[in-house]
Write a structure and sequence with these properties.
mainly alpha; two-stranded antiparallel sheet; Arc Repressor Mutant, subunit A; 9 strands
Length: 645
């Protein structure tokens, strides 16, 4: 038995004769189970996928389709014996066929092998030859099929280019000119395709045509996108101008062992720069927005969506470094998502939604914006899980993590997200997201007072950073060590407050040039205030301290330290509700402490209500960078003040 879906859905017996699968619904049920790759699909999911508005007897109809398919696929199965191909499993059904008996699975496996091992590239010939048309071609109206077609078409294009590159590397690419010319004409935005066409023309002795192809690519990229060609096209042009053929695999960019990728576009370069930190991080934000605006000018929605969603740089901090740029990116993503509509490619929609969730962070978000961001995060996660694309899921979970600051006391929930990100990234070789998973778990362990576990995650993150080229990681883990020193400075024989303050200042020196103002501003002042509170000392009054965004919450305590009681009372009355970010527990604790000292029962009651879900956490430690001590201490003080008659 063989099942084919790379074209119209069909089943063939071992002798090649066709199997009568029945009507369109029967074929769609079979196709949907093929797309699940052996996993069980619940009855409810199948009903929802088959009907936009399921009829009253949809489940009964589905069972009829399954029974008919079982008779067609196993005509010789004896009565009352369990089926072996289309099986019942739990609350649904699964297809049990070897992967080599399903054309789409053979194709996917051949591509995965070719990505990892150049010697396996010849297997792509047979895999590509199996394509008889668009995947699931006769399942035209189903949303799940449209998603699968989009995903598989992208894989097909990658396979075409990977196979062509292997032929060109062997020096036998002259015969590819017509094939690659048609490929470029149909997909003009794929930079790797232009480079492959130019190499094929060059190997065919058509050097002038090879240069002309590269210059057409340059003109198109500059005129339509405002982008310069990537390094591979530039190297090829220089080689051809020197009349020297490119060496084997010339211009190939390698991203991991055995994985060949094409040249980096502007947004790819921006993503790389972002991970470097410092001035490069600042430049990456500028280049990213320029690439988005250039894509918007083309009017090509899918291109714009790809460019917006390609910047999947892991984000750890809940305040944006450049709020204006974040708002512009969110606006572009929302506009593109609306224009694509609910039937747009699922992978593009998932990345756009994840981008909205990741970029919608900061103190100035309205309640409506927060709700929209939380909804986007949930939708991105659901789409990513359905796609079964680990890179998209990791990006979506990053958005979910950044939207888990809706109230105090959610460190344990964030640890669960960090655990999944880390597991996903480890299994699928996503090193930057593995670093993110470690840092999220570092933060949650710190928030819960488990500094030994936090330290182990810090060490693991540093090891990953050494190979993933993520120089910002040691900058962040230095703050955890300062936090640990501050916590232990209160212990008998501990390092003392002065040593802890020096650790904080040393960590701040490294952070100052890291290109993360959303994290840097006010952090040292807040850390030193937390250190004083740990030692039951008044707030620091050094006028040189930059309180940054934390000034409103620190100001009443600073005024109290200066014995300016009435001014402190007025400042406390003006304190807003803390933003919902990494520091919300810390800022509520500062509010509680000022209210207690001033006897402001109403304010103390508000702080107690906000903090009551976080009794086991440490204030400020959700950042993994500073601490004000256990929330329970401030909570008890606020509760006693609010209850005082």
């Amino acid at each position: 038995m063989r099942i084919d879906v790379l074209g119209a859905v069909r089943a063939l017996r071992d002798d090649g004769s066709p199997v009568d699968l029945g009507g369109p619904r029967h074929r769609e049920v079979l196709a949907r189970l093929v797309a699940a790759e052996g996993r069980m699909v619940t009855t409810d999911t199948l009903v929802d996928d088959l009907w936009t508005d399921p009829p009253a007897r949809a489940v009964g109809a589905l069972r009829t389709f399954v029974a008919a398919l079982r008779r067609a696929l196993e005509p010789d199965r004896p009565p009352r014996t369990p089926p072996r191909v289309l099986v019942t499993e739990g609350p649904g059904y699964a297809l049990r066929l070897p992967r080599e008996d399903v054309d789409v699975h053979r194709f996917q496996d051949a591509l995965v092998r070719a990505r990892r091992d150049p010697d396996a590239v010849p297997d792509l010939d047979a895999a590509l030859a199996a394509w008889r048309g668009p995947a699931y071609a006769d399942v035209t109206d189903a949303a799940w099929a449209r998603r699968e077609r989009t995903r598989l078409e992208e894989w097909r294009l990658e396979a075409v280019e990977l196979r062509a590159r292997a032929v060109l590397d062997s020096g036998e690419g002259a015969g590819l000119v017509a094939e690659l010319g048609a490929h470029v004409a149909e997909h003009p935005w794929r930079e790797p395709a232009w480079g492959l066409l130019a190499r094929a023309l060059h190997q065919a002795g058509r050097r002038a045509d090879a240069l002309a192809a590269l210059r057409r690519a340059r003109a198109m990229l500059v005129d339509r996108l405002g982008l310069d060609p990537g390094p591979e096209l530039r190297r090829l042009e220089a080689d051809f101008l020197r009349e020297s053929a490119p060496s084997e695999g010339a211009g190939t960019v390698w991203n991991g062992p055995g994985v060949r990728l094409g040249p980096r576009t502007t947004v790819d370069l921006a993503r790389t720069l972002a991970l470097a930190g410092g001035d490069a991080l600042v430049r990456s934000r500028r280049d990213r927005l320029a690439a988005i605006r250039a894509a918007q000018r083309t009017g090509d929605l899918r291109l714009t969506a790809r460019i917006i969603g390609a910047y999947d740089v892991p984000a750890l901090w809940s305040r944006a470094d450049d709020p204006g740029q974040s708002r512009a990116v969110v606006a572009a993503a929302e506009h593109t998502l609306t224009a694509l509509g609910p039937d747009g490619p699922a992978d593009l929609r998932a990345r756009l939604l994840a981008t909205i969730a990741v970029e919608s962070r900061g103190a100035d978000l309205s309640g409506t914006e927060r709700e929209r961001a939380l909804r986007a995060a949930r939708q991105a996660e659901a789409l990513a899980r359905d796609l079964a694309d680990p890179a998209v899921l990791a990006f979506a979970l990053n958005g979910v993590f950044l939207q888990t600051f809706t109230r105090c006391g959610l460190a344990a929930a964030r640890d669960g997200i960090g655990t999944e990100i880390l597991d996903l990234a480890t299994r699928h070789e996503l090193p930057n997201f593995a670093v993110l998973g470690r840092l999220v778990r570092l933060q949650s362990a710190s928030a819960l007072g488990d500094l030994d576990t936090a330290a182990s995650h810090a060490e693991a993150a540093e090891r990953l950073a050494a190979t993933a080229e993520a120089p910002l990681v040691p900058v962040l883990t230095a703050w955890l060590r300062a936090l640990t020193t501050a916590t232990r400075s209160t212990e008998p024989g501990g390092p003392g407050a002065a040593a802890a303050a020096e650790h904080y200042r040393a960590a701040e020196d490294a952070l100052r040039t890291a290109g993360m103002p959303g994290l840097h501003r006010g952090l040292l002042a807040l850390a030193l205030l937390g250190l004083r509170l740990l030692h039951d000392r008044p707030a620091p009054t050094d006028p040189r301290l930059d309180w940054g965004p934390y000034q409103p919450w620190a100001h009443p305590l600073v005024l109290l330290a200066q014995d300016r009681v009435e001014q402190a009372r007025a400042a406390l009355a003006a304190v807003p509700e803390p933003p919902r970010d990494h520091m919300q527990e810390a800022l509520w604790c500062l509010t509680a402490r000022a209210a207690v000292h001033l006897g402001e029962r109403t304010v103390a009651a508000r702080a107690e209500a906000a903090l009551r879900d976080a009794p086991t956490e440490h204030a400020g430690a959700a950042s993994g960078m500073l601490t004000l001590g256990p929330v329970a201490r401030y909570l008890a003080e606020a509760r006693a003040c609010a209850a005082a008659g």
